[in-house]
């Protein structure tokens, strides 16, 4: 077995050996949650998150995370519209920030201090891609500054490849009806954000970009996930006006 195949197989064994959560999601989502936990232990890291992203930077959604704090950090990027995972996806290259405040504050003026407030000192983002196809990003969080070792970087790249493989297999299975995975729910959340964005645009008579900025501002100010804010806008429980963030 060559080195690449050996690393890939070892990553999958670590995921297989990771105990499932009490309320683990079915199919691909559950496997990605175990992937996040397994990588968090293997590096070690404070947390790991995986998100799907779109080219327009509007329809992103958190798929899996090693814990609640990592999920909040993933959602923080969508609330602010900036962050390492978004940049890794857009550039198709890893974004490696060994000292978040020193090297991330100018790049992400909103995200860096907010993530620092949640005890993140270093963050490493890896695009989820194969060939020309892109799906999202995997983010690794650490509570102390410093670079990842060469071995840790190799391991993270391998887990990102496994994550993309899980997503591809999951979406292929969903198309032919052979799986019970919950990827449809993730996609539904993305569509709700688009729908809410259109409603705010019409209600306020603003541009599509300004509508998203309003939704993000309310999400960040209220400390809620952007998908939850979108759901409330659609249902009428929240109606943004010109004076609201």
Output the keywords:
alpha+beta, 10 helices, Beta-Lactamase, single chain, 5-stranded antiparallel beta sheet, 245 residues, globular, Arc Repressor Mutant, subunit A
Task: Write the SSE topology.
Elements: H1 3-17, H2 27-42, E1 47-52, E2 61-65, H3 68-80, H4 84-91, E3 95-97, H5 100-104, H6 111-117, E4 122-130, E5 133-142, H7 150-176, H8 183-204, H9 208-222, H10 226-235
Antiparallel strand pairs: 1-2, 1-5, 3-4, 4-5
Helix pairs in contact: 1-2, 1-7, 2-7, 3-9, 8-9, 8-10, 9-10
Written account of the structure:
This protein has helices at residues 3-17, 27-42, 68-80, 84-91, 100-104, 111-117, 150-176, 183-204, 208-222, 226-235; strands at 47-52, 61-65, 95-97, 122-130, 133-142. With 245 residues, it is an alpha+beta fold. The chain folds into 2 domains: 3-176, GAF domain (Beta-Lactamase), CATH 3.30.450.40; 183-235, Arc Repressor Mutant, subunit A (Orthogonal Bundle). A 5-stranded antiparallel sheet has the order 2-1-5-4-3, with helices on both faces. A hairpin with a 2-residue loop joins strand 4 and strand 5. It is globular and about 60 Å long. The model is unreliable at 177-181 (pLDDT under 50).
């Amino acid at each position: 077995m060559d080195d690449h195949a050996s690393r890939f197989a070892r990553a999958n064994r670590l995921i297989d050996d990771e105990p499932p959560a009490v309320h683990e999601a079915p199919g691909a989502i559950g496997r990605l949650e175990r992937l996040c936990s397994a990588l968090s232990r293997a590096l070690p890291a404070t947390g790991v998150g995986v998100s799907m992203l779109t080219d327009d930077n509007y329809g992103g959604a958190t798929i899996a995370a090693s814990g609640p704090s990592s999920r909040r950090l993933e959602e923080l990027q969508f609330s602010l519209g900036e962050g390492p995972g978004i940049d890794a996806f857009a550039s198709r290259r890893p974004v490696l920030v060994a000292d978040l405040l020193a090297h991330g504050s100018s790049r992400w003026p909103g995200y860096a201090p907010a993530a620092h407030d949640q005890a993140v000192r270093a963050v490493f983002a890896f695009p989820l891609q194969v060939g020309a196809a892109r799906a999202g990003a995997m983010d690794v969080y650490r509570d102390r500054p410093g670079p990842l070792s060469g071995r840790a970087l190799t391991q993270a790249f391998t887990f990102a490849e496994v994550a993309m493989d899980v997503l591809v297999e999951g979406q292929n299975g969903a198309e032919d009806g052979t799986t019970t995975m919950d990827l449809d729910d993730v996609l539904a959340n993305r569509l709700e954000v688009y729908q809410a964005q259109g409603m705010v645009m019409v209600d306020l008579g603003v541009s599509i970009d300004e509508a998203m900025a309003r939704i993000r501002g309310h999400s960040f100010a209220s400390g809620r996930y952007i998908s939850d804010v979108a759901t409330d806008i659609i249902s009428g429980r929240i109606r943004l006006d010109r004076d609201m963030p």
